[in-house]
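Form 7-S
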Amino acid sequence: MTLLVKICGLREARHVDAAVDAGADAVGFVFADSVRQVAPADAAAICVKVPSQIKRVAVMLHPANDEWQVVLQDFQPDVLQADAEDFAALEVPGSIEQWPVFREGGAPPRTTGTFLFEGVKSGQGETVDWSRAAGIAKNGKMILAGGLATHNIAAAIALVRPFGVDVSSAVESTPGQKDIRLISEFVIAARAAEKDQ
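Output:
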């Protein structure tokens, strides 16, 4: 099974292009209060050249349904990523994949589909307990997030054996500013680790 690699927190077309060129499977756009926040229409504009097989992910945190509807209309994502409890209040069309986020120390994942497992706060580079994550990864298509970087991605994949990996802060030169070289290096390292499994 091919490892899903997601580059999150993108705000510029050149960084979206870099993620695509490097071989990422998903590109994430943050519509929550963050240094990486982008307007839905702007995200749509920088995604124009993204191939259809690459998932465009709307990343939200406790959104009201009307906020989500604006993102849905203006950005038209392939996937909505939000905390697991958020989905109960949101009207999500069946054509949109739902990736619930489960956080370390919170309720255990209750899904057979794709989900994320990360630290208490997103985008902070917090590494989760990989041994615990390895047990959770056996229950579904878990995307491991939090504190992953080029230097530790091989160890994380070997121990956790996730369905996918998600990176944001470790491919930035400064908070919120992506780095084309770091994006490429991360994807290369993830693919190399995947081949060793």
